[in-house]
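Morning run. Coffee first, then this:
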Amino acid sequence: MSAKPRPAEKLHGYSNKRDPLIKRLRRIEGQVRGVQGMVAEDRYCIDVVTQITAIQAALDKVALELLEDHAEHCVIGADESEQGERTKELMGAVRRLLRHG
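And here it is:
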């Protein structure tokens, strides 16, 4: 199930990596369902937290890859008049990712 952009649609920096990203996100979705099952089965707290930590790390990797693509495609590749605003946008996303506001 490959998501293909429509001809008039503007491509994003991650567009050429969309299928692998979707595959990774589906794997993370499965991990979340696994944690839900662990809670339903009343599994040991630390085991549940360990799995949650793994999910957070996997999501962070996806986010970092998207930010890298954004920096290359949407900041560096932007018109000079847009680069300042795009840089602010990028840094706001980095701050949120680092959980610093």
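Residues 17-97 form a domain with the Methane Monooxygenase Hydroxylase; Chain G, domain 1 fold (CATH 1.20.58.1000). Good start to the day.
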